[in-house]
Write a structure and sequence with these properties.
Helix content is 27%, strand content 24%. It is α+β, with helices and mostly antiparallel strands. The radius of gyration is 22 Å and the shape is globular.
Length: 405
């Protein structure tokens, strides 16, 4: 599948503060390694509890090449399984959302399972096997303030420090009472790491994102100080007065911080107006900036007073990936009356499409023989550097733990 010594040598060759060697952005062997070393060992945000609104609602998605099934139980718990039948391996539920009846039934040979993964029946084979040995394989699930995270690892990173930071910051928005207003997927001809590097900096924003620039003031390096050392702005002081103040915080695989929007802005709109008539929070007339939370390897989210936005990047091949975007609004907001979908998604959608062009152009340059790793800006690209450093350490750790040092 991949040459361990070659990957070890490539990791060692990476120069500190520089972008990755060319192979990490275009080599099929590295793609396979990324799935095993990164995506199958991390916490991956897959969506929101709002996507499973009722008992027996399900969300069927994929992490790398592994189909995953999440179900809301009658105890109001979200449980997760590998979406793979224990008979001959067929995918059980089609990708997307839906609702099962009282059991999960394989469409191939009709083996059936309860919502917690226990094997119920095996057509014409009930006397042949021990059903206790053939339940669905579980996946780890963590839910924090309506956000669902999944890990395929038996020993994923400690989730509690992230939960303890994110939960109090996100709780006032009550995303448990949200609904998904729109979902969009973009196929991108670029390595997933290039897409994430682009999403971890605003060095390119002033030249490349007119819609984004209409919402956010210029993003300066001090915004990325997650050590709590930056002086409090008037915006920070006002958020403290409202009980919404948070210290920006980050560990190696996550970040949580609040950013101001442009003065007078209530939402992610091109003007200063709200996008949804029924907001999540009405404090300060809706001027609450944007709470941003992000996790490595592939996710970032923003929420304003009336709209939440999620973006995920999932590798398809060495030089292609899928970007999934989701927009949430208050569950009582009515489309066509309280919000217009086209206006709701416009600014982020335009930003996503512009970023796709940047990433695909970046890939074309890296594919060429002229590419050699270049230095990151230690002011403008500090989160990119943190992402790449995290990636290299995670990749090395997998080698040490599974292949010997």
């Amino acid at each position: 599948m991949y040459n361990v010594e070659r990957i070890r040598s490539l990791l060692r060759s990476r120069q500190a503060y520089f972008s990755l060697p060319r192979e990490f952005y275009r080599d099929p062997e590295i793609h396979n390694y990324d799935l095993d070393a990164i995506f199958y060992r991390s916490w991956i945000m897959v969506g929101f509890t709002a996507e499973l609104p009722e008992v027996n609602s399900y969300l069927s998605t994929q992490i790398g090449e592994s189909p995953i099934l999440l179900i809301r139980t009658s105890e109001d718990e979200i449980v997760g399984h590998h979406n793979t039948c224990r008979h001959r391996g067929s995918q059980l539920c089609v990708t997307g959302t839906g609702k099962i009846r009282n059991r999960i039934v394989c469409p191939y040979h009709q083996w059936s399972y309860d919502v917690r993964g226990g094997l119920l029946s095996t057509r014409n084979m009930n006397d042949q096997i021990d059903r206790k040995e053939f339940g669905l394989r579980p996946v780890r699930v963590e839910v924090v303030e309506g956000c669902i995270y999944v890990s395929l690892s038996d020993s994923p990173p400690d989730f509690e420090p992230y939960r303890q930071t994110l939960a109090p910051a996100l709780a006032p928005y009550n995303l448990w009472d949200a609904k998904v207003a729109h979902v969009m997927e973009l196929h991108e001809e670029a390595n997933w790491k290039l897409v994430m590097e682009n999403g971890r900096e605003c060095y390119h924003c002033q030249a490349g994102h007119p819609e984004f620039n209409s919402m956010f003031p210029p993003i300066t390096p001090e915004y990325y100080d997650f050590k709590g050392a930056r002086p409090k702005s008037d915006f920070d002081i006002r958020m403290d007065e409202l009980g919404l103040g948070i210290e920006p915080k980050a560990e190696d695989w996550w970040q949580v911080a609040r950013f101001p929007l442009k003065k007078g802005h209530k939402s992610f709109s091109l003007d200063s107006d709200a996008l949804v008539k029924k907001p999540f929070i009405s404090l300060n007339d809706g001027e609450l900036g944007s709470l941003r939370w992000a996790t490595e390897p592939n996710n970032l989210c923003h929420v304003s007073s009336d709209t939440a936005f999620m973006l995920n990047v999932m590798p398809e091949s060495a030089t292609t990936c899928t970007v999934t975007a989701k927009w949430l609004v208050h569950k009582d907001a009515v489309e066509g009356e309280d919000y217009d979908v086209d206006k709701l998604i416009y600014a982020w959608d335009q930003t996503n499409r512009q970023d796709r062009a940047f990433a695909e152009n970046n890939q074309k340059g890296i594919n060429g023989a002229g590419y050699v790793p270049g230095p990151y800006s230690l002011g403008e690209e500090v989160i990119v550097l943190a992402f790449v450093d995290w990636y290299c350490e995670a990749a090395k750790r997998f080698l040490e733990e599974n292949q010997g040092s």
